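Example 3.2
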Amino acid sequence: MRKALIVGIDEYPHARLRACINDARLIGSLLEKHADGSRNFDVEYKLNIPTKAELRKHISRLFDHDGEISLFYFSGHGYVDHMGGHIITPDFKLHDVGVSMDDLLKIASHSRARHKIIILDCCHAGAMGTPAFGSNTASYLEKGVTIFAASMDNQTALEKEGHGIFTKLLTDALAGGAADIPGEIRPGHIYSYIDRALGAWQQRPVFKENIVESVCLRKVHPSMPLNELRKITEYFPEPTYLFQLDPTYQNSVPGAIPEHVAIFRVLRRMHVLRLIEVPDEEYLYYATIKSKCCQLSSLGVYYWNLIKNGRI
């Protein structure tokens, strides 16, 4: 089972936000289904939760779970003080502003779910997973915990054009921007996508993880059909194999061989995806005309091994 609790809070007294409900709904809609429409996460929305007690109750229910994934997403206000970081609810008071990030991490760490994923789009979110005191070892990440934070612990998280800057990049990543060639989107892919999009002078996203296996958060359509991708081990029996090309692979050349033309269509897709390369040639077409060899790139060798070992 894959559970997701999606929390967005706009309605804060004297400090109203504008993007959190929009962001929560957008994230939830992406997590509910894979790109082909098949079921992904069982999503529960909690929008404008009024109290800290109610938020804690829902967090506890989420992580009281022994399935594959428990995922918590929060968009709202965050706060940090000498006691650490907090995610804030509308009933905040001085010295009791919301749910402690340390407490949130403790609840997640005690979960029996195989993967515990926490995503915070709020100011000072990077305090998540950093103990308030050096002796507070409960705040360190237990196995299976992954944290995405919109900003460092001393930074604010900004909104732009109706969405949080971090969540907009996160949704773009989940929509396919962070997908690998088979169409799988994993936490490391997402962080790399967001990290490269935000400059050194902007809010910096934080990624913390303690895992022994990665997990796919969403699937989109592969960059090339998997039955074609798997042909890489057929065309290249060994990673160092040199595939000899010649003009018979070109449909426009007299003497073209239909079987070769069909292979070339697949090789061309592999070339576009940087799985194969031809030294000194930018276009695969000229490699056929000049009867050159193509070979696996470093990325191609990586996928060759995944396919050979039955991982794709």
